[in-house]
Amino acid sequence: MRDRKDTPAPGESVDCEESSAKRQERKQHESENQDQALEETFPASDPVSPFVPAKAPE
């Protein structure tokens, strides 16, 4: 599975319609991930980092 922000593969459709229910579900999942990342870093002084992007293809 790829991240929503990844560029599409050659020949892959870019049209990605999302229902309001799916959007709400995705936003809730992102929020839960953010909360979990925050809990994992507490009480350290490191910034929250729930996502580490991959290197861009060459």
Explain the overall architecture.
It is flat, with a radius of gyration of 15 Å. The model has no long low-confidence stretch (mean pLDDT 77). 38% of the residues lie in helices and 0% in strands. It is mainly α and 58 residues long.
Short summary:
Helices cover 38% and strands 0% of the residues. It is mostly helical and 58 residues long.
- Calculate the terminal CA-CA distance, rounded to whole Å: 20 Å
Content-based structural category: mainly alpha
Unreliable stretches (pLDDT < 50, length at least 5) are: none
| SS elements, strand count | 0
**On the 0-100 scale, what is the average pLDDT?**
77
Shape: flat
Note the run of SSEs as H and E.
H
Biased composition (Basic and acidic residues): 19-32
Region (Disordered): 1-58
Give me the secondary-structure topology.
Layout: H1 20-41
Output the keywords.
58 residues, mainly alpha, 1 helix, 38% helix, 0% strand
